[in-house]
Amino acid sequence: RRCLWRGAQAGGMGWPALLWSWVLLGCNWGLGPPGVGTAVLSTATYVLDDAGGLGRQFDGIGAVSGGGATSRLLVNYQEPYRSQILDYLFKPNFGASLHILKVEIGGDGQSTDGTEPSHMHYENDENYFRGYEWWLMKEAKMRNPKIKLIGLPWTFPAWVGKGENWPYDYPDVTAYYIVSWILGAKHYHDLDIDYIGIWNERAFSGKYIKLLRYTLDKHGLQQVRIIASDRLWEPISFVLLLDSELHEVVDVIGAHYPGTKTVPNALLTKKKLWSSEDYSTFNDEVGAGCWARILNQNYVNGNMTATIAWNLVASYYEELPFGRCGLMTAQEPWSGHYQVEAPIWITAHTTQFTQPGWSYLKVDGHLEGGGSFVALTDGLGNLTIIIETMTHNHSQCIRPPLRHFSVTPQRATFYLQGSFYMVETLQVWRSRLCFESGKSSLFQQLHPLKVWKGSFSLDLKVDEVYTLTTLKTGQKCGFLEPPPPQPFPSNYKDDFNIRNPPFSEAPNFADQTGVFEYFINASDPGDHVFTLRQVVVQRPITWVSDADQTISIIGNFKWVNMTVTCDIYIEKQRDGGVFIAGRVDNGGIYVRRTKGVFFWVFADGTYRITGDLAGKKILMKGLSGVRDNAWHTLTLNIQGTSASGLLNGYPLWENVTISKPSNGWAAIGTRSFEFAQFDNFHVE
Predict the structure, then answer these.
(1) What average pLDDT does the segment 516-540 reach?
(2) Residue 136 and which of 42, 227, 570, 616 are 20 to 30 A apart at CA?
(3) Residue 120 and residue 105: Cα distance in Å, rounded?
(4) pLDDT digits (tens, 9 = 90+) for 139-152
(5) Taking the domain 492-683, which CATH number applies?
(6) Residue 277 annotated among the catalytic residues of the structure
């Protein structure tokens, strides 16, 4: 581990050498008076004063794991790399140093990049060790005991809706289900959930929210606060103004992708206003510019006191929807490779020098030359100022559309008044996003800035972030370079023979509809005691259009020629069925349109080869002799434009012509939401 706390010592460089490096990078120096020949900068003055009281209380910066399955591959990393990734995300004064972790309450349904398992697949079923969000919350708490935890459902198991695709017909059942998750977090993992949401980006029910508050209180969970409605500012703000009882039980109004703006009704509620999901942008330099701009302007323009990024870490196959839309990238557990992306260090500009409970100063926050600043204090004499000068084209987020604006180089003079008048020195941290050279400087500590009689000036170029702070605790930490990237192994086997697996799901399988879990087949006398089982037997209350079939993908999206072999066990009599597949081209929110080469066998003794998951494009069909409640071995061989298949080692079909897709993942799955088992998976 290494930490940088003196910019002049970075990499052993002296101060003159570091200054010269800025010139070589094509990134202009920003502190102090303009040099000879420098163009005259526009100038403006800004006053920071706490004498007239403070602004809103700051609630923190965070990120989402889930919505869905965005941390799926992270858990498979070997040490020390997995712990290093977690340190970059959560360890205070190290990297992103996040204040908030928001996780999906798994509901067995597709929630963007995969499904996350529910703690209650069925009404009489409770298991608080499924999935990986429990583990992730514990790892975050271990690094930062003060981190705030939020739970939010995207989907719900079918039994919650009693057959309807709606969670509010039986609000007492839904409240019981959600409160069970909160109680389980405490009982089994000693995790205190701080905030709970309603239903991600879908309708809310005032009746349900009131009943949820009642159920929380009944179980001694008065400290758990309610966020609503994780969608838009309206209609929740308007309804809160009309319904005093609902107004009393909602603690935070959470809006998604607000474009740094709020609405008058939200302000009139006098509630905390959060951007409870934001960012969702490819994590290159433009993504960093987007994140820098909204972290400041969500408060400057919209009075939002917390901003939460989707997503925490891009730990899912990159070709799934919204690939690499995390604060950092960790999508190769098989190699150990990960990337600490620029948004990590943009985050640090705020998180390392503030804490939830600090207060914003009452300032306008707009820079006259474009860009913004915020100032926060702990009320004990500490002051942190964060300045950003992101230009339009270098800070566009994925949504909403960004109206054109201009940013120009400028000189900003700040006057410190009130309790800050006696500040003599400010620590300086700076990031400069260099789009021309591609060599950005991120979170560099510069020489401290002397404050002269309560004022100082700063020359600001475009696409910069500055933190000026009385705190001396900031650090840019790191590790030795992780291993180089490698493609998914071209010869991969899993026999699922593990008695006490650390997680409920087998490594590298990414469920896209349904849930595939390790299973102990106690009734099997021989080779199939430990298997992988599909366990969702009713279509969940969905968030998007889940497939009618279940499917879990694995491997390298670029694979063309492959042989997939797997032992299969159909549990559903008469109309049960399973498949193995190759060249699978889709997943996530687009799972219903998935194409590939699918080799199906059914309990009625027939087989089919289809070009799609839906089974509508039939390439061949016939009799197989396969029956339910017996083990069979399927082999699918795809070479060029031809495919063939074996059953129990003997040819069953051959010479099926394949045109599209030309490449894709391997996969396993079932005909419907039904129990089925898989064993001895092998892809080459």
Answers:
(1) 94
(2) 227
(3) 11
(4) 999 999 999 999 99
(5) 2.60.120.560
(6) yes
Q: Rounded to an integer, what distance in angstroms lies between the CA atom of residue 571 and that of residue 524?
A: 13
Q: List pLDDT tens digits, range 284-316.
A: 999 999 999 999 999 999 999 999 999 999 999
The active-site residue out of 126, 201, 571, 684 is 201
The reported pTM is: 0.95
Helix/strand/coil for 109: coil
Is the pLDDT reported for residue 74 higher than 80? yes
The predicted structure's pLDDT at residue 524: 81
- Residue 388 annotated in active site: no
Q: Which two tokens stand for residue 173?
A: 């059942």
Among residues 104, 116, 277, 464, the one annotated as catalytic is: 277
C-alpha of 227 from chain center: 18
pLDDT of 9: 33
Tell me, what's the pLDDT at 19?
Answer: 36
Report whether pLDDT(631) > 70. yes
Domain 56-469 in this protein, CATH class: alpha beta
Q: Which residues pair with 493 in a beta bridge?
A: 682
DSSP 653-682: EEEEE--S-SS-EEEEEESSS--EEEEEEE
Q: Is the dihedral of CA 281, 286, 292, 294 positive or negative?
A: negative
**With 50 as the cut, is the pLDDT of residue 345 above it?**
yes
Segment (H or E) for 214: helix 206-218
Largest interatomic CA distance in the chain: 90
Q: What angle do CA 512, 517, 520 make, to 5 degrees?
A: 160
Report residue 186 CA to chain centroid gap: 23
Phi, psi (deg, nearest 5) at residue 247: -55, -35
> Using alpha carbons only, how large is the chain's radius of gyration in Å?
27
Residue ranges per structural domain of the chain: 56-469, 492-683
Q: Could you give the CA distance from residue 201 to residue 337 in angstroms, rounded to a whole number?
A: 33
